[in-house]
């Protein structure tokens, strides 16, 4: 049993670390979103742009240095990562609109659900495009 667990960990180590790093970005995103929207009264779409952008930058730096350990073509990789992040932002904005305006979910509930959707999409794209092994 322990041997199987170790093999599973080794096989999925990069994904596990990506998720842990992603958690820091999601935490930052969520905290900044909450602060801007709920505490400062900034419109949720504007708050979302700012919070997601900070989460993207956080995740890129941590993934580049600690997970994928790819510091070559740093700026080029950042542009790819950020472009995928912008796709995530567009997806996030659409999901928030649908969940808040159409389904009338609470803003925070919609944000939490949106984070899960966007994370799955971004991991797949970043693994295949941004941090692709040469």
Largest sheet: none
Overall geometry: globular
Low-confidence stretches: none
Q: What's the helical proportion of residues?
A: over 70%
Which class do the helix and strand fractions yield? mainly alpha
H/E element order: HHHH
* Individual helix count: 4
Rg result: 16 Å
Number of strands: 0
Q: Mean pLDDT, as a whole number?
A: 90
First CA to last CA: what distance?
Answer: 35 Å
Strand content: under 5%
Number of discrete domains: 1
InterPro entries: GtrA_CellWall_Glycosyl, GtrA_DPMS_TM
GO biological process, one term: polysaccharide biosynthetic process
GO cellular component, one term: plasma membrane
Pfam family, one: GtrA_DPMS_TM
Structure description:
It comes from Candidatus Buchananbacteria bacterium RIFCSPHIGHO2_01_FULL_44_11. Belongs to the GtrA family. This protein is mainly α and 134 residues long. It has one domain. It is 86% helix and 0% strand. The chain has helices at 2-39, 44-67, 74-102, 107-130. The protein is globular.
Label this structure with key terms.
single chain; about 130 residues; mainly alpha; about 0% strand; globular; transmembrane helix; GtrA_DPMS_TM
Task: Summarize, please.
The chain is mainly α and 134 residues long. The chain has helices spanning 2-39, 44-67, 74-102, 107-130.
Outline the secondary-structure elements.
Layout (H helix, E strand, L loop, with lengths): L1 H38 L4 H24 L6 H29 L4 H24 L4
Helix pairs in contact: 1-2, 1-4, 2-3, 3-4
